[in-house]
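Marked as duplicate of an earlier ticket. Keeping the data here for the record.
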Amino acid sequence: MSVSLPSIPHEFRGVWRRTLYAEPANEPYQQTDTTTQVCWLQGEHWHADLRLPTNGPDFSSITSLEVCNRAQLEWLAGITAFAGITQIEGYLSNGLCTWHRYQDLFPNLERDVGLLRWLDDITLEERHPHGQYVEHWQRLANDAIEEVVHDKLGQLRWQQIGDHAIAITPRPAGNASELFSSISTANDETLRWRASLRFDYLQRSHGVWQIVLSTQPWRKGQYVK
């Protein structure tokens, strides 16, 4: 029996860039972040989201997970990157949005939910339902054709909106319970496995795709066919 997926209203679809993260949701803020590079692709059903802090280790001499040191592995395993189905309820007035994370680089047991409202024609505000944080999102594009590719297991492998895309390379099979263990106590082999779920954010120019951000930073700048 087929399952009907929720269809996201057109105005929420597109390519989004985060311009602000702050805690708590109301001023005066105790903590703010405007430097983390965040890309969120939202299609009719599926989302893919990649967030890279700017204070990471030096990866200039790194070409693979196998040669990463302990500090690099801990940082990579703690990156926020996820993909799945999006659900919005009551979107005309403070809609409640739920991001169901089916693939998650650094998972936790808390539901990913937020209250959405428009600040202007291209800026969306997201607030935690209990006021823990606020985020501002700026829409870069929303009028382009979407393309989604899944593998035989139903995992999202490619989400494209116009000249923007996120490519996802899944982890090899492993012990799922290890995803919720402490990064600081996990051994290096486990951290390499956890960090092997790869998200690449790409942009297309003159018919050529180039990696702009990646959960494996040494891939940044590479061209992809």
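See parent ticket for discussion. The mean pLDDT is 93.
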